[in-house]
Write a structure and sequence with these properties.
The chain contains 5 helices and no strands. It is mainly α and 171 residues long. The chain has one domain. Helix 3 runs antiparallel to helix 4 (119-146).
Length: 171
Amino acid sequence: MPHRVFRLLTVIWVGSLLTIGYAVAPVLFTSLDRTAAGEVAAQLFRIEGVLGVVCGVLLLGLANVLIRRGNDAYRRLRWLIAGMVVCVLLGYFALQPFMNAIRMAALAAGTDVAHSPDAVRFGVLHGVSSLFYLIESLLAVALVWKLPTNATAGLTGQEEVRGAAGKGVAG
């Protein structure tokens, strides 16, 4: 059962990451004015950041449980998950507050970020944040690609036999 929860959390995290970053955000910026699109995108990326941390911590915990049960296939996945969590923490929780402060200062001054004195600094922070998002996305694809294909993947022969014997045979 933990491997199914692991897969479910992976699908939720990776699916939302790819959907928001590469489908929803571009549509926002082609459908709305830049200020409104930026505000909506910031809200969505905030939700994605929290979801990423929650899913990442849960996936790391589940990977440890599965490894303790003898499923070594999850050992290498921990590094991908840890890398993704680091990207979320740096990209969203370290850089986004600075970007948001620049955005709020520009709005308070009656302009948008592109026309504010801090436009270049915002652009650099946005670029670095986007790079972390891209790295997280690539790690996410690798995580999905390397997911074990069945519940007994990575188990030692003895544990696999015990697992198969416990299931019984339908006749």
